[in-house]
Amino acid sequence: VGLLKDLQGVVPTGPPAEEADLPQEADEEGSGSGGDDRSHEAAEDCRSEEDEEEEEDAGPATTLVHGVPPGLKQALVPRRKKNRTNRVSVCVAKCRSSLRVVECALARFSWEQVSRDTSDVSVAWLEHTDSTASLSPFQVTSKIEGILQVCRKAELAACIQEMQEHCPDDFEFVPRTWILSPSRVDQVQDLEQTMARKKGWTYICKPTAGSQGRGIRLIKAFAEMRSPLRSAFSDRVSPAEFVVQRYLTKPLLVDGFKFDCRCYVIVTSVVPLRAYLFEEGLARFCTSRYEKPTTKNLNNVCMHLTNYAVNKNSAAFSADPAHNAGSKRSLVSVFKLLESRGGPSADALWGEVQSLAEKSLLALRPALVEHISLGNRGGLHPAGPKAFHILGFDVLFDEKYKPVLIELNAGSSMSVLQPTLEPDGSGQKTEVSELDLAVKAELVAQALLVANPLPHGAALRHRIAWLEERGCAGVTGHRLLSVDEPIPLDDSGELIHESAANNAPIREDRPDLCPALRPLSFEDYEAFGYVQAHLQAYRIWRHYAFYPPGNMPVRQPGSRRYLGFGRHSQLPSGSVQV
């Protein structure tokens, strides 16, 4: 299979891929066995080679884009040797609309861009349904398995609701929510009763797998729910799910316009839970002045929906080249504007976003652990690749500056294209948004840096040794992960199985190179104790359910819940929760 070739000086290269014909990506809410001392030595090699390849000094990366917002803190890049094998290689063959920003980040670092589809690289950029099966623990990927599924609207709502039962005071940042599905008839009945009592409320209904504002409607009466209910209950094989939320009627406005905040969080580990808030983002404005919802304006989507895909086609959409004006702006500039007008400081607003992100990730963790473990995916497994994932948090502030989580996007759009008017006003054209390019290229750059990938030569050498140790079966695409392999016991990252610990190389995050990343902290919340308890219970009892009499454990995969968490399966009637 050609695995024993001499790797010295071999770095795959190729012409840059084209972006022109790629479809524009939409935000989507639902995207080892025993070892010996060689694995330990490989991990030591990783650390020693890394120490050799990096000089002591570090400086800002070269900026290749214009229009960088003044408040954007740019990445620091260690000086690397000129030997090409000591550069990081990144496969961009699976890039979609992210190609332009990934190319920009790689050019700044002088990293190697690999255009052909191959697993023989330091980093594999993956998106959506792309598989991580062919990657080794010595490589990095841009996708954490399972996040796309648990971030879908209904799944996210279920995770939040379960956490609200345990820690209601910590989870007031989500509007009251109902899930419409055949498995949650009680919530449909509660929604009908609530609508009958609260006739002055307005509600927003969203399909769980929708994107770009498609299928969203504002309603005031239960009778208007007939179409979503038919979709949810008519098809018993694959019923559609909808989420209904109380609509926020008093949002924070800027000059009379409603806006939302696209905030980015980079997750680098599920167990232990590690993530970073990117201290820049995009503020997306409606193109019609806001009015409280009435039966006459419920259908005015450009007044009520902040989705960029909805407002970009409005005649009132303003593609201002400045970062602090127009229908899309730098989030830092908007926070500073609010501060200058007597609102909270920009740092206080970032603190509110940070707290919201920390609690949201805590709510997602139990379902994510179960999803990864049940699917035997490498994202949690000690022999899986190191992964990071960029999440897009859509946040509104109410008139009292309290944040409200609207959606969580696991497939945040990295497109940098926007419509603008032709100079003669004859129509629209599409061009690159300097603001989008500056923000998203820096986001991708710091996500790659914090993941701390191995240089190309070391990544391939250890990948080959890892495959040979397992009989090269990984070359055929078969994952060599055992269902019985352990998951970490707790958020200290301790591995219970000694051989698993020996198999996994130690590649610590490098937030010191990423000044725009604010580390998230989870230990101070009451919910953290529940999340830890779930992990320990799940690790011990994941193959069992409890049944009377005597609460004797019976092997029954697919019929379990742990401390009330997890949505992949429900307990059968009469069973007892762990």
UniProtKB/TrEMBL annotation:
GO MF entry, a single one: tubulin binding
Q: This protein is called what?
A: Tubulin--tyrosine ligase-like protein 9
Composition bias type Acidic residues, residue spans: 18-30, 47-58
Query: What InterPro entries does the annotation carry?
Result: TTL/TTLL_fam (IPR004344)
Q: Cite the PANTHER family for this sequence.
A: TUBULIN POLYGLUTAMYLASE (PTHR12241), TUBULIN POLYGLUTAMYLASE TTLL11 (PTHR12241:SF154)
- Biased composition annotated in UniProt, kind: Basic and acidic residues: 35-46
GO cellular component terms, semicolon-separated? ciliary basal body
For whether the record's keyword set contains Thylakoid, the answer is no
Question: Which Gene3D superfamilies does the UniProt record give?
Answer: ATP-grasp fold, B domain (3.30.470.20)
Quote the Pfam families the UniProt record gives: TTL
Q: Which domain of life is it from?
A: Eukaryota
**Gene Ontology BP terms:** microtubule cytoskeleton organization
Sorted alphabetically, the keyword list is:
ATP-binding, Ligase, Nucleotide-binding
**Region Disordered, residue ranges:** 1-79
